[in-house]
Design the sequence.
C-alpha cells in the first residue's frame, strides 16, 4: 500500500482539521475491482469548503467585494455588490434557519432556481451547516425534477415562485409542486401573493424564525473529506440520469483548476453564465471564492446587449462561455460598442468550439486568450485544458489538467504511445484528485472502469469522448464515443429523446436521435432519424412532424433542446444483437451536405 505523507511544516493555510493521515492512500496492487481504483485522498481529514469560501485571510478582507450582480432590465443602474462581511452574515442567517428545521446532519437539500445572489447564499449555507446540496437545473420539467428528488432522497427544496426573463414570467414553483417535492422554501420573484401547499414556507417566514441570529456567526460543521457535499446529475446512456456525488475534496479540485489554468486570483472578477443545476454553477462558486476572486452574476439572458454591458460595468476579468453563446453574439453583434478591455482571458467549455467564432471573440477583448476547458460532472472540473503558460491553438487543448493523465485508445483498445498522434476513445488515469468515487444509482466501477485496459499496473478510467492528439501535441475533441449527445452544453442520452419522439405520431415505428456536429464546427445539432410503420401509406408532413418532435422534447425533457432536422429511413442499422448503431448514423449524417440533404 503506497502512501504520500505530509509534514506539519508544509501544511498550507486552511488545511483540514484534523489533518490527513497522508495525501494519497493508493489501493494495494491487484485490487482493481474496488469501486474507486484511484485510491483515497486525504484520509482521516475533515473540512468544510463553505467555511473557507467565507474566511478572512491574506487573499481578502471583510470589506472586499465578493459578489457583483445585476438584474436584466436594470442596465442603467449601478452594479450591485456584496462584501465578504455581508456574504458571511447572509449565509450564517440561512444556516441558522436550516438548523431550526431540525433535519438530520447530512440531509439532502435541493436547489431549483436561477443562479443569483440568493441561490449562492443558500448553496453555501447548506454546505456550511453540514448538509448536502442537490443540484437541479431550473429548466427541467416536473418529471425530471421528480426523478432527481427521489434518487437523492431530498428532504427539502429551495425554489422561486417564477423565473423572470425580460417581460416573461416562467412558472417554477408550480413545477416543484407537480413533481411531488418535499417541504419547499419559496422565494418570491414577483410579489408575495403566492398560494402555498400545506407545509411549504415563504422565504421571509423561513428567516423570521431566526431573526435574532442575524449577526451571530454560524459555526461551520466540518465533515470527513469522503462525505458528500453536493449531488449532481449527468445523463447516462440508459436514459436515467447518473447521480454523481461530489465529496468535500471536489471543491478543492475546482479551485485548483481555476488557479492553475485560468490564473484566477485575488482581485479577479469571474463571470460564467450557468446554473447551480450544472457542475459549472458550483464550480464558479468555489473557483472564485476559494481563490480570493469575486463572482459576477447576471440575472437574465446572456444573449443580449444587457449582459455585454454588465461584463463591461462589472469589470469582468475572466469570462467563461459556451460556443452557442458566442455564436449568438456574433450573429447579432449585440456586444459591439462595449468595453471588455478588463478581461484577462476567456474560458470555454460544454461543447466543441469553432475557430472562426473564437477568433472573433478574442477580437472583442484586445485578443486576450481563450482557455479551452473540458471535463465532466464526475471529474469535478476538467481533465484537459489550455494554459496561460503555453502557446494556445484555437479550438484545441494544450495540456492535461494538473494532476490528470490522458490516454487515447487505439483500434486494439490499448493506449497509443504519448509521443504519437492519433484519434480514438479517451481514457483517464485512475488517480485524479476530486474525481467521483461512487454513484447513487449505479455501480461506479461498472460505469467507469469495467472492461478498461491497464497501464503500468493501473486500470484506466473510462470517459467516453472521442479525442485526437495532433502531430503538434495539442488535443481536439470529436464528440461522444457512446450514444450521449451534447446539445448546447447539456449532455443527454439518445434514448431519452427517442422515448419521447416514438410516441409523438401514430405513424412512427421507431426513431434514432443523433447529435451531428456541423461542418463548420461548433455545437452538435439534434437530428432525428425516423422509420414509419407503413411505408406504403403517405408520410406525415416533415415540417409539422419536426415541430411536434420539438414540442414534445421541450415539454418532457428540456425546453432548451431543438430538433434541427428529420431524416427518413426504411430501417435503422443494427448490430447482430439488435442494438441500434447510432455511430454509423452519425458518420453518415456528418458526411451529408446538411443544407442540401437534411
Sequence:
Amino acid at each position: 500500500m503506497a502512501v504520500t505523507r505530509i509534514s506539519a511544516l508544509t501544511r498550507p493555510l486552511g488545511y483540514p482539521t484534523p489533518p490527513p493521515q497522508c495525501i494519497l492512500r493508493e489501493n494495494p496492487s491487484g485490487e482493481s475491482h474496488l469501486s474507486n481504483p484511484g485510491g483515497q485522498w486525504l484520509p482521516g481529514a475533515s473540512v468544510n469548503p463553505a467555511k473557507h469560501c467565507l474566511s478572512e485571510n491574506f487573499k481578502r478582507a471583510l470589506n472586499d467585494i465578493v459578489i457583483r450582480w445585476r438584474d436584466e432590465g436594470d442596465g442603467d443602474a449601478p452594479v450591485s455588490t456584496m462584501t465578504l462581511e455581508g456574504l458571511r452574515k447572509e449565509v450564517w442567517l440561512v444556516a441558522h434557519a436550516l438548523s431550526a428545521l431540525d433535519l438530520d446532519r447530512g440531509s439532502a437539500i435541493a436547489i431549483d432556481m436561477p443562479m443569483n445572489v440568493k441561490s449562492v447564499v443558500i448553496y453555501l449555507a447548506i454546505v456550511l451547516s453540514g448538509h448536502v446540496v442537490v443540484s437541479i437545473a431550473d429548466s427541467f420539467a416536473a418529471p425530471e425534477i421528480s426523478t432527481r428528488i427521489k434518487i437523492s432522497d431530498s428532504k427539502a427544496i429551495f425554489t422561486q415562485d417564477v423565473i423572470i426573463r425580460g417581460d416573461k414570467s416562467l412558472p417554477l414553483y408550480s413545477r416543484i409542486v407537480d413533481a411531488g417535492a418535499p417541504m419547499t422554501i419559496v422565494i418570491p420573484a414577483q410579489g408575495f401573493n403566492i398560494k402555498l401547499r400545506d407545509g411549504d414556507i415563504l422565504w421571509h417566514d423561513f428567516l423570521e424564525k431566526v431573526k435574532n441570529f442575524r449577526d451571530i456567526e454560524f459555526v461551520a460543521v466540518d465533515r470527513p473529506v469522503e462525505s458528500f457535499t453536493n449531488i449532481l446529475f449527468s445523463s447516462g446512456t440508459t436514459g436515467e440520469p447518473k447521480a454523481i456525488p461530489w465529496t468535500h475534496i471536489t471543491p478543492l479540485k475546482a479551485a485548483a483548476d481555476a488557479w492553475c489554468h485560468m490564473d484566477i486570483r485575488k482581485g479577479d472578477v469571474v463571470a460564467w453564465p450557468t446554473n447551480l443545476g450544472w457542475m459549472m454553477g458550483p464550480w464558479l462558486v468555489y473557483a472564485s471564492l476559494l481563490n480570493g476572486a469575486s463572482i459576477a452574476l447576471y440575472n437574465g439572458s446572456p444573449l443580449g446587449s444587457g449582459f455585454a454591458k454588465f461584463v463591461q460595468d462589472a469589470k469582468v476579468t475572466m469570462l467563461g462561455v459556451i460556443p452557442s453563446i458566442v455564436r449568438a453574439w456574433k450573429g447579432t453583434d449585440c456586444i459591439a460598442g462595449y468595453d471588455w478591455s478588463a478581461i484577462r482571458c476567456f474560458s470555454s467549455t460544454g461543447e466543441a468550439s469553432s475557430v472562426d467564432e473564437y477568433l472573433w471573440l478574442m477580437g472583442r477583448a484586445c485578443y486576450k486568450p481563450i482557455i479551452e476547458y473540458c471535463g465532466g460532472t464526475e471529474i469535478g472540473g476538467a481533465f484537459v485544458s489550455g494554459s496561460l503558460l503555453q502557446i494556445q491553438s484555437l479550438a484545441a487543448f494544450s495540456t492535461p489538467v494538473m494532476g490528470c493523465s490522458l490516454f487515447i485508445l487505439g483500434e486494439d483498445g490499448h493506449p497509443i504511445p504519448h509521443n504519437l498522434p492519433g484519434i480514438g476513445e479517451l481514457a483517464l488515469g485512475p488517480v485524479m484528485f476530486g474525481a467521483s468515487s461512487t454513484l447513487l444509482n449505479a455501480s461506479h466501477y461498472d460505469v467507469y472502469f469495467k472492461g478498461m485496459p491497464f497501464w503500468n499496473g493501473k486500470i484506466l478510467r473510462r470517459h467516453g469522448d472521442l479525442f485526437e492528439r495532433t502531430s503538434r501535441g495539442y488535443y481536439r475533441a470529436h464528440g461522444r464515443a457512446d450514444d450521449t449527445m451534447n446539445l448546447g452544453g447539456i449532455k443527454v442520452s439518445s434514448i431519452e429523446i427517442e422515448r419521447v419522439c416514438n410516441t409523438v405520431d401514430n405513424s412512427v415505428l421507431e426513431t434514432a436521435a443523433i447529435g451531428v456536429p456541423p461542418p463548420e464546427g461548433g455545437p452538435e445539432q439534434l437530428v432525428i432519424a425516423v422509420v414509419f410503420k407503413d411505408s406504403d401509406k403517405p408520410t406525415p408532413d416533415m415540417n409539422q412532424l419536426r415541430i411536434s418532435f420539438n414540442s414534445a422534447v421541450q415539454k418532457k425533457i428540456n425546453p432548451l433542446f431543438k430538433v434541427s432536422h428529420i431524416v427518413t429511413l426504411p430501417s435503422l442499422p443494427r448490430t447482430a444483437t439488435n442494438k441500434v448503431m447510432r455511430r454509423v448514423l452519425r458518420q453518415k449524417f456528418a458526411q451529408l451536405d446538411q443544407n442540401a440533404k437534411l
